[in-house]
């Protein structure tokens, strides 16, 4: 927790109430988003994310349409692709969950699945022979993968992409995943702030705000990812 004086706390809370944050952003404005693709061609394991963060990602990202599981099937009931996502956090100044979800969405869009040719199926329970191509790849349809919008309540206002200083003043936190169609795919309420549960009316209000913000976030993420892919191909 960041140590702030009473004056600093009052200044942060007052600015948020006036829709003007310390870095000049409005309450529902994210910091600039930049995407680079093709930096790490293949992941081979890393330190596990904190359990709470990992569970929140699963709950928010796997609750909607996401990736069609059938697109990972090579031979039904026998062979399929597994997807492992390693998240490497270099530094954190708040809003880690939203950033990881955006990175996962961009990474999967840039991921190719090698084309697989299946030889004649073997009899019984024997595994079929497969030939994995080194040159031909198929891409995921990631259009259904949601983004995560974490809303943090400071006073009577909600903010997104909170800094560490702003997080020290929040009374409640809700992470909501929303896909391109505006469907809510998952919701996580983080404990440890305020103690008491949130009024259902506040939850519904936060969902409405998250839907509005998610549209802008998805469009920005798509444009940045497309630009990064174009640069990679040059």
TrEMBL record:
Keywords: Cytoplasm, Exosome. Its main location: cytoplasm. Residues 41-114, 144-211 form the Exoribonuclease phosphorolytic domain. GO terms for biological process: exonucleolytic trimming to generate mature 3'-end of 5.8S rRNA from tricistronic rRNA transcript (SSU-rRNA, 5.8S rRNA, LSU-rRNA); nuclear mRNA surveillance; nuclear polyadenylation-dependent rRNA catabolic process; rRNA catabolic process; TRAMP-dependent tRNA surveillance pathway; U1 snRNA 3'-end processing; U4 snRNA 3'-end processing; U5 snRNA 3'-end processing. It comes from the Eukaryota. Coiled coil: none annotated. It is found in: Cytoplasm; Nucleus, Nucleolus. One of its GO terms (molecular function) is mRNA 3'-UTR AU-rich region binding. Transmembrane segments: none annotated. Gene3D superfamilies: GHMP Kinase, N-terminal domain (3.30.230.70). InterPro entries: ExoRNase_PH_dom1 (IPR001247), ExoRNase_PH_dom2 (IPR015847), ExoRNase_PH_dom2_sf (IPR036345), Exosome_comp_Rrp42_subfam (IPR050590), PNPase/RNase_PH_dom_sf (IPR027408), Ribosomal_Su5_D2-typ_SF (IPR020568). Belongs to the RNase PH family. This is Ribosomal RNA-processing protein 42.
């Amino acid at each position: 927790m960041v140590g702030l004086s009473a004056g600093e706390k009052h200044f942060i809370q007052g600015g948020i109430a006036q829709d003007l944050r310390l870095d000049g952003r409005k309450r529902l404005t994210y910091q600039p988003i930049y995407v680079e693709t093709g930096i790490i061609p293949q992941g081979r394991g890393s330190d596990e994310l904190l359990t709470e963060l990992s569970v929140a990602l699963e709950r928010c990202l796997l609750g909607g349409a996401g990736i069609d599981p059938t697109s990972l099937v090579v031979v039904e009931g026998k062979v399929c692709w597994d997807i492992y996502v390693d998240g490497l956090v270099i530094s954190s100044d708040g809003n880690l969950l939203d950033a990881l979800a955006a990175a996962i969405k961009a990474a999967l869009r840039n991921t190719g699945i090698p084309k697989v040719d299946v030889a004649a199926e073997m009899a019984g329970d024997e595994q079929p022979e497969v030939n994995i191509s080194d040159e031909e790849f198929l891409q995921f349809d990631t259009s259904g993968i949601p983004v995560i919008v974490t809303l943090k309540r400071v006073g009577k206002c909600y903010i997104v992409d909170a800094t560490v200083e702003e997080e020290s003043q929040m009374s409640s936190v809700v992470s909501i995943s929303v896909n391109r169609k505006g469907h809510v795919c998952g919701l996580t309420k983080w404990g440890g702030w305020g103690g008491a549960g949130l009024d259902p009316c506040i939850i519904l209000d936060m969902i409405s705000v998250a839907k509005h913000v998610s549209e802008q976030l998805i469009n920005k993420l798509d444009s940045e990812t497309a630009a990064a892919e174009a640069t990679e191909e040059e």
